[in-house]
Amino acid sequence: MAQLTMIQAITDALAIELANDPNVLIFGEDVGKNGGVFRATQGLQEKFGEDRVFDTPLAESGIGGLAFGLALEGFRPVPEIQFFGFVFEVMDTVVAQAARTRYRMAGTRNLPIVFRSPFGGGVHTPELHSDNLEGLMAQSPGLKVVIPSNPYDAKGLLISAIRDNDPVVFLEHMKLYRSFREEVPEEAYTVPIGKAAITKEGSDVSVITYGAMVREAVKAAETLEKEGISVEVIDLRTVAPLDVETIIASVQKTGRVVVVQEAQRQAGVGAMVMSEISERAVLSLEAPIGRVAAPDTVFPFGQAENIWLPNATDIENKVRETYHF
């Protein structure tokens, strides 16, 4: 196995699927010769040619429309939205077209598009680059929304997404791109979409989260372990559809829950998780469900980002509050 960063694992997955299926196409702003703004597609145009990996104009609406048309004609497009805050320029294609096509055509047509995009805070990007907009996507029936938290899952989930016959929004947290390495198999493998992972076993409190907050939750769990509080960390991996079965099993095991998201508190994925727990497992709870999230404000400029973003300390405090209720 190779020791890869998350960005390297993503590049590896893309290369494997380009080689595996001639109908896979990669395109977006600067993804060709430059290899993308984060170099996720570095070297792919040179290896697979300009017909398979190519640049587009700076127009997300055009990127989306091209992907939609290609998918209807039997291709498997993997367009890159350079930063997910730019998704508003292509919302019609993603939500009003791609998400509805199977229903609209009575299941007679597939629409295998993977909308890849970086997102997330902690790297001091300009406005609209870091925004956590996964809640908008998760609210749209017909879309699968995948958010890996580590290199192994990133490769396996991306391969699964490209092979899926329905549209997938694949979000890659920028802070995780090069922050650590882990062992990743060199061959092709898949990680199932719609299945959460138990990142750390525990018995006292369940912390349910995704993306960059998984690493913050693990840090918090390690600190709390020294205080005698055993924390189970659940990585959702897919925020639509939710793996309700794994969530409820963990809640029934521990009896206490803290839900964590980097996104603003209002109308987020965390609220959906909390409602599912309240509806299905309220009698298993020994304390109110705790929540850690960003404030309900516009994502701040870089100078205030570290104050605004949730972190391990916030998670520790909420777990203590829930545990000692």
TrEMBL record:
Coiled coil: none annotated. Pfam families: Transket_pyr, Transketolase_C. Residues 4-179 form the Transketolase-like pyrimidine-binding domain. One of its GO terms (molecular function) is oxidoreductase activity. Its cofactor is thiamine diphosphate. Keywords: Oxidoreductase, Thiamine pyrophosphate. It comes from the Bacteria. PANTHER family: PYRUVATE DEHYDROGENASE E1 COMPONENT BETA SUBUNIT (PTHR43257), PYRUVATE DEHYDROGENASE E1 COMPONENT SUBUNIT BETA (PTHR43257:SF2). NCBIfam families: PRK09212.1. This is Transketolase-like pyrimidine-binding domain-containing protein. It comes from Trichococcus pasteurii. The lineage of its organism: Bacteria, Bacillati, Bacillota, Bacilli, Lactobacillales.
